[in-house]
Structure formats: C-alpha cells, structure tokens
Amino acid sequence: MTPRASLQHWALNVECSLNLKMSSPQNSVVRKAVIPIAGLGTRHFPASHAVKKELFPVVGPDGIARALFHYHLLELEAAGIEEICIVVQPGEDELVRHYLRGPGGDYLKRLEKYPALLREAERMRGFEQRVSFAVQHQQEGYGHAIFQTKNFAAGEMVLLALGDHLFRGKHGGPCGTHSPYRELADTAIISGGKSVSAVNRIGADELKGYGTIAGARRAENPRLIDVSLIIEKPTVAVAREKLRVDGGPCGTHPAETWLGWFGMHLLAPSIYDVLEEMIRDNVRDHGEFQLTRAQEIQRRREGYLALEMVAAERFDFGVPDDFVRSLQAFRGGP
Fold it and tell me: Does the model's pTM come out above 0.85?
C-alpha cells in the first residue's frame, strides 16, 4: 500500500471508529444551531445590494435551485437539530420568513407539474415554523453577531456554521456519506462539556483566512485534538513557530500544512460569558469583536477541543471567484 493510500485507509478507519461511538440524530445531546447571515456581503457588491448574499441561488446535486442558507436548514434537520436561530440585520427576519413561506396558491398550482418543487415548497413552510431570529443592530464583528444568540442558547451547547459556506460529507467511504453537522454535534457526548471546533488541513497561502490551532491528538481518537493555542489568521512565521499538532499520523502530512478552522463550531455555553466580557471591556481586534479571540480565552479557562474533518467538504461562497468555483463543485454532488 502506498503512503497516500495508507493515510486514506487510516483516516476512514478512524472515522468509522469515531462514528460508532456517536448517538443517533434522535438522541443527540445538541438541540440548537446558529446560522449567522447578518454580514453586509461587501465583497459581492453590487449584487449583494440587490439580493442578500445568503439568498443567492445555489443548485444542489438534485438539480433544485435553493437559496444558499437553505442548505444549512436541510442539513441541520437531517442531523437531528431541533431549533435553529438565524442572525440577521434589522428587518431581514421578514425577508427570510417570506422566502421560507413560499409562494401563494396560484404559483403553487403552476408547481403541480413539477412534483419535486411542490414538495420543496411544502418542506420550506415547515422550516418557517421552526426558525427563530436574533438581530445584530450594529456591524461589530463575528463574535458580536454570535453574542446576539445568547438568549436563544439559554445555557445549552450550540452548533455554529458559517452562513456563507456550505458543508457536506464525502461519499464512497466504508461508512457511506456522513453529515459533518451531525458528526460535530455528536462530539458533545465525548467532549466533557468543552467547545469543539471542526478543523481541516490548510496550506501556507490559506493561513491568512483562518483561525489556526496547536495541540496534541488523543491516542484513542487521533482525529480529536486537545488544543493548546488558537491564533486568528497567523503569519507563516508564527504558524511555523507555534502552531503544530503533535501525535498520531501528523508526520505523514507535508511539513508546510496546518490545522485551521473548517467553518463549524460546537460552542459550550461559557462562550457567551467570554463574549459579554469582551464587549463590556471593549476588547477588539481590528475594530471588531472576534469570535476566535473568545475561543482562545475560553480555551485558557476550561480547555478546548478540535475535530479533524477527513471525509467532509467545505464550499466557500464568500467572494465572487470562490462563489463561482463552489457553485460548480457543489452541483456535482458528493
């Protein structure tokens, strides 16, 4: 077996062993999820001035064109999440509700000749009854946006997913296709109450876009990492000096790769206490309240975990060129 094939075989075996320890969606201890879509979409201007970025159309593997954020609702429902809070700007809650409410009677009659689309409209109305909203009145950063969901969380762990990214499991492994949403949510069972962030391999040219970690892999589950440091968008020099993950098969990876944020986090309730302190004390990075700083503070106080995603895909729709690439890749299916 070649080194590359050996690594892939290891990763899939570990994934299966980890999954066997997880619960079914019905028994998941994580019931709530947060999807932030309150950003201005500046990099998509002027299109984002006409249509909110998270409402841009994305065609799924089934050929149905849905709003970008809609796929999060589908995945979260399949993962057993019961309650979903969407973070919006003032007035945008009605925009999202209008989308989910779907068309009126005359339009629905036209959909009768497209049964799959008619079923989609019915399912959307179900989501309209299940989602709630938190409003970010000022653009004060990602951490500030997440803090607006404190009342929604109500002391429970929440699953957070970037609103302008999509995520799905890769197909074809011995475990079949496994939802990264469910996989991360289910780590609550073994996290001991600590926050857990999904991470994946990134190269030197990607460091400028992601929070990046150092830590040590657990011997019994090498994909699960005890995090010893979190740095937001480090330089290559800092990453080389401080951001290595020890243990497990890490040495089989190229030297110039690191583990950075995948775009999904399972957050323990204390994250809201940290964010509240940061807002009270005006602790900002580049003028904004950043979630990554809050995560590092939380790590220092109570520990922090990361889960390496080895059989999942991330699709970045945040800037126009990435949007075009992700449209094509996402349409192709797992």
Answer: yes
